[in-house]
Amino acid sequence: MFYHFKELTSTIDEAREAKYQHGDVVVAEHQTAGRGQRGKTWSSAPGENLTFSVVLDTSFLRVDEQFLVLQAVALALVDLFADYGLDARIKWTNDIYVKDRKIVGVLIDHSLAPGGMLSRSGAGIGINVNQRIFDEWLPNPTSMALETGHAFDPGEVLERFHARLMERYEMLRDGRREEMQRDYHSKIYRLDTPALYLLPDGTQFTGTIRGVKPGGELVMETDGGEMKNFLYREVLFVI
Ligand code: BTN
Description:
Elements: E1 2-8, H1 11-15, E2 25-31, E3 50-57, H2 67-83, E4 88-91, E5 95-98, E6 101-113, E7 117-127, H3 144-148, H4 154-173, H5 177-186, E8 194-198, E9 204-212, E10 218-222, E11 227-230, E12 236-237
Parallel strand pairs: 1-2
Antiparallel strand pairs: 2-3, 3-7, 4-5, 5-6, 6-7, 8-9, 8-12, 9-10, 10-11
Helix pairs in contact: 2-4, 2-5
The structure holds biotin (BTN).
């Protein structure tokens, strides 16, 4: 079911309510406290874009398998954009890029069950659909309209995404992990391309992404030929 709201603080908070079941979508035209990664806010022009959360039953996954949920969501987004002729890439960990610009942000909220299992997950997703002018402090935003030159019906985009997500979710549920991992690998932003990265201490280095492990660590080859694994927040992309 799709639940539409004119205004919410954040769809992530609403989607936590027990009344929402697997597959339900909570959509807000406007979020007064939209949340982004690393404690940032997510701003989105009301009515122009999509800000929503999808509830997923993830009770068959262990807590240490949570990256697989993000993988399924990211692939569903790439599938969605392919339907519209856009070649999107997954920028580790949570962004979807078209060329060097961010078109989607994802924030996943997991609820845990006893015994080290997940119980359910709320995939909070912000898709830039029709917005053409962005706040100047945003580093590199883009939208479907900017990339294609025409506007989209956000409702149709959302329904299509939902269908794509359910397909990827079924793959996950059926244990088709190697296939997912292969698909994910082929869509990694900057794969096998030397580029600049930043460590938390401010050091910049040139590295080449060689892949992402099933647990979510980024595998990077440094320009000295050394292989390094990075966890979330241990390395930043210089765009
Ligand atoms: C990011 O920082 O890139 C993640 C942004 C996630 C934004 C979406 S919009 C719908 C959902 N509700 C929120 O408050 N955040 C997510």
